[in-house]
Amino acid sequence: MFTVKSMDMNTNQLKRQEKIFCVAPMMEWTDRHCRYLHRLLTRHARLYTEMVTAEAVLRGDRARLIGFDPFEHPVALQLGGAEPARLAEASRIAEDFGYDEINLNIGCPSDRVQSRRFGACLMREPALVAKCAAAMREAVSIPVTVKCRLGVDEQDPEQSLRALIAASVSEGVSTFIVHARKAWLKGLSPKENRDVPPLDHDFVHRVKHGNPNLTIILNGGIATLDDAARHLDFVDGVMMGRAAYQSPAILAGADTRFFAGPERDLDEVVEAYVVYVERRLGDGVRLNAMTRHMLGLFNGRPGARLFRRHLSEHATRAGAHVGVLRAALAHVSLQALSVAA
């Protein structure tokens, strides 16, 4: 297994902690409303935005694209791009917004991203990734991290990941989030790229073993907190993706499991989120934009199906208000009471 020479530690390195547990950046999922709900469920896990391109940050509505509630801390912005100067400027803006970390996306396999020469296709250009990371690090005082794949298409992970890590480390990057599968840019959709290429968790474990001075966070196929705990015997951190989104209540146990904190009470979480929903409705946010992140919250509990159905049928309607959410929640509590009786 390859090794990489150590670098000087500085203020642009993530602070070491005994356990690192994160919720993955997921396009069209981990928006600010999703992250608020997740923060209610876990006070310590690191949250990530959806990928935002550097160009969007520079040219677009920044408040809408990268605005967040201070309650979300610690929260990282994931940037996409391949032009060092543009990424550096976007990173400065993100730091001014108050983000705790900037993460460079070297893992997205979509055709749209490929056509603009960033995301997973940059696994073939480690020198460019290093230049991007160097410019970003020079621009900000917060950590700059890299999220990548094992490789793409015909690449040998032993070579592709070696090259990417070595080049990035030479520019001071010390934290890598590794999605433990290759991306197939030819012939597979982004959705298929989340499942079809085989996972190789052991390979990422070996990467950490060979690079003790780096922070290696494992992503891909982590479905339970037990899964996460097992991997933490071999790597510095884990990043949970779809499981955390599709059944968010799983996050309620993360603080106890990894941060010696109390387990979150789901009823208290729900009440706090209702208050948030009511406040944001007053800002003009649509009800469905917030309640869609709750659909899996009661998976496995009595009344969950009725809860989902009520929101699906009513939360999307024009003028839908917080009463729709309370009515949906009544299906869960009333059903639970009837079962208990």
Biggest β-sheet: count, sense, barrel?
8 strands, parallel, barrel
Averaging pLDDT over every residue, what do you get? Answer: 90
User: What is the CATH class designation of the largest domain?
Assistant: Alpha Beta
How many domains is the backbone divided into?
A: 2
Instruction: Report low-confidence residues grouped into runs of 5 or more.
Output: 4-17
Structural class determined from secondary elements: alpha/beta
Supply the number of helical segments: 15
Percent of residues in helical segments?
A: 40-55%
Reported CATH architecture of the largest domain? Alpha-Beta Barrel
Within CATH, the superfamily of the largest domain carries the name Aldolase class I
Query: What is the CA-atom radius of gyration, in angstroms?
Result: 20 Å
Q: Describe the strand arrangement of the main beta sheet, using strand numbers.
A: 1-2-3-4-5-6-7-8
Cα(first) to Cα(last) distance is: 59 Å
The fraction of residues in strands falls at 5-15%
What is the succession of H and E elements?
EHEHHEHEHHEHEHEHEHHHHHH
Total E-strand runs = 8
Shape assignment? globular
This entry's quaternary arrangement is single chain
CATH topology of the largest domain: TIM Barrel
